[in-house]
Amino acid sequence: MLQPTRTKFRKAHKGRIHGNASRCNTMNYGSFGLKALQPDRVISKQIEAARVALTRHMKRQGRVWTRVFPNIPVSKKPTEVRMGKGKGSPEFWACRVKPGRILFEVDGVSEQIAKEALYKASAKLPIKTKFIRRFS
After folding, report:
1. For residues 124 and 66, is the Cβ–Cβ distance under 8 A?
2. CA-based nearest residue to 21, from 101, 131, 102, 95
3. Which residue of 60, 103, 117, 120 has the fewest CB atoms within a 10 Å radius of its CB?
4. How many CB atoms lie within 10 A of CB 64?
5. How much is the pTM?
């Protein structure tokens, strides 16, 4: 699974996801892509599951670009622990996704295969997504 090699701080604030994506909101690499329509945190396991579903359906043809990276540590207190006594330890890594962000890009396969593959990948993600194609 994806995670950064090192970070400036071990724990992060929860934060809120406001507004639309101002970066990574245009296609840069592939011909087809998956665009986020909702704000949410996407964890590293979900990104990896989507990527595996994508490459399996494409039968390792073409090329896949992952445009999101989980760089936010999400902490969690153990079960049945009383309130207080500080913040929990980091459990997993997540990426804050704003609406309009491109999550995956695909190239080197037909539109039909790309559409089906990206649909299967979107089923692994906790947000609503949209299939998009590059007009060049």
Report:
1. no
2. 101
3. 60
4. 21
5. 0.92
